[in-house]
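Data availability (excerpt). The following record was deposited with the supplementary files.
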Amino acid sequence: MRLDWKVVGSAMAGFLLISYVLCVVYDLLLGSRMYRAWVDLLPGFHWLSLSSFVLGLFEAVGYGIFFGLVFAPLYNFFLVKVWKHEGRQQVSGARSVVAVRSTSGRGKP
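Predicted structure:
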């Protein structure tokens, strides 16, 4: 099955957004030092102001969309060109086999 970059990017953006918020809440509640990873990964992020938090939200979504833009075409390329496999043909073929089997038994005693 081929991947759509919009779906992959949206899923990854959601994942990174949830991870970012959970890490910030965890750091605020338990005084951990997980925020250092966000400082290194998100340009312009500083611990912690409202503008920096919002900037981190936008950057997390941006990284997720970027992941979808890069990963989905690479996956589709390797699926078709390297592994010589077209996912859509296999799915439609499987449906036609099921349809033939379900109708072939009708009308026979």
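Summary of structural features: The helical segments are 5-30, 35-41, 50-82, 87-104.
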